[in-house]
Design goal:
This protein is of the alpha/beta class. The protein has helices spanning 43-50, 97-100, 162-182, 198-209, 222-230, 240-251, 268-275, 301-306, 321-333, 352-360, and strands spanning 3-10, 18-24, 31-40, 59-60, 65-72, 84-87, 125-127, 132-135, 145-149, 153-155, 190-194, 214-218, 235-237, 256-261, 278-286, 310-313, 343-347, 366-370. The chain is globular, with a radius of gyration of 20 Å.
Length: 371
């Protein structure tokens, strides 16, 4: 029988999340029904409300989550009923060329991620008045229950707390991977992280675990700078200009080996000044989401090219979730990465708009909905 659920829906740009009663379809071939326990309040979901990067609307929000499998469709072999699972924003089919090359973060199955529709064009969620509703990132974790393809779930062991599992599925692997994979930080390097919310703080942690001698966290919010210094940053600055002086002094004017951009909303004119934080041959890692209407970037072209600097676009930290999540959780179990400290506050589903207000005020590293 179809499942009844409450879900946070974005109906149109500029309108706050609304909690509505929905009907959720039964699992079909290869689909998994999950009862959510926790869902992370990622800034990417808020882009639906602001219009910076909206999905097809209306949409059930949420793409970070952890829960329990309660039903499976035919052919499901990755998980079974009763398994604790994390929901993955990007799938890993294991069959396409990119998965075969170890680049599952650009798996071909990601093609429909922003449509919110199932493979046949139908929708898993339906409102009480019969209107079909999409699932953000093909997940829709702002709901008591959700229906997803099995290639978008990953089993995890229950010694990992649910809130940690939920944020690991996106924020942690994205930020951590941006430092460890994309930036290629090595022992003794200097790294700069611009914007230290949930993703940026995970980049700080990744830079530290990679052996960086200096990690400079840049954020205008004093609370976030303070937390960054507790979680692995060696220095903190309120803006790029202040960071410039710090990095120059630390490196004797050589500048940093990498700068990782993890601001909430990226604009093209931000990148140019950040490129000057990195040394010759250095990496500028672009992890943030920019408004869909923006298509230009301003950088000092001659200086950038003649210094052999690299501008690297990043999705999901260039990680391979089925392998890298296990490594991250191993480090967590060993007490080497403090993932619990990334979860600042928990909220009820009906308080989701308060959670995002707190995010915009800079009160949270990561807010989490507890179902």
């Amino acid at each position: 029988m179809p499942t009844q659920t409450r879900a946070a829906v974005c109906w149109e740009v500029g309108r706050p999340w609304e909690i509505v009663d929905c009907t959720l379809a039964d699992p079909r071939q290869g689909e998994v029904l999950v009862k959510l326990e926790y869902a992370g309040l990622c800034h990417s979901d808020d882009h639906n409300i602001t219009g910076d990067f909206p999905a097809a609307l209306p949409v059930v929000g949420g793409h970070e989550g952890a829960g329990v499998v309660v039903a499976v469709g035919e052919g499901v072999d990755r998980v079974q009923v009763g398994d604790s699972v994390m929901l993955l924003p990007l799938p890993s089919c294991g069959k396409c060329r990119y998965c075969a090359e170890g680049r599952s973060y650009i798996c071909d199955a990601n093609l429909d991620v922003m449509t919110g529709a199932r493979a046949d064009g139908s929708f898993a969620f339906t409102s009480a008045d019969g209107q079909p509703i999409g699932a953000y990132g093909q997940l829709g974790t702002f709901s008591d229950y959700t229906l997803v393809q099995q290639i978008r779930v990953q089993r995890y062991e229950r010694d990992i707390p649910g809130p940690v599992a939920a944020i690991t599925s996106c924020a942690v692997i994205t930020g951590y991977g941006s430092a460890v994979r994309a930036a290629g930080i090595r022992d003794g390097d200097t790294a700069v992280v611009v914007g230290v919310g949930g993703v940026g703080m995970s980049a700080v942690i990744g830079a530290k675990i990679s052996g960086a001698a200096h990690v400079v966290a840049v954020d205008p919010v004093p609370f976030k700078r303070e937390q960054a210094l507790k979680l692995g940053a060696t220095h903190a600055a309120a803006d790029v200009d202040e960071a410039m002086g710090i990095v120059s002094a630390l490196t004797r004017n050589r500048m940093a080996e990498a700068a990782i951009i993890t601001v909430g909303v990226l604009h093209g004119d931000m990148i140019g000044p950040i490129t000057r934080l990195v040394s010759k041959g250095g990496n500028v890692v672009v992890t943030s989401v920019a408004p869909m209407t923006e298509s230009t970037v301003s950088i000092p072209l001659v200086e950038f090219a003649m210094s052999a600097k690299n501008l690297i676009g990043v999705v999901m930290g260039l990680t391979r979730p089925t392998a890298d999540i296990d490594r991250i959780h191993a480090l967590y179990r060993a007490g080497k990465i403090p993932l619990d400290d990334l979860v600042t506050r928990t909220y009820k589903l009906e308080d989701i708009n308060l959670g995002y207000e707190d995010m915009h005020k800079g009160l949270n590293l990561r807010g989490v909905i507890q179902f």
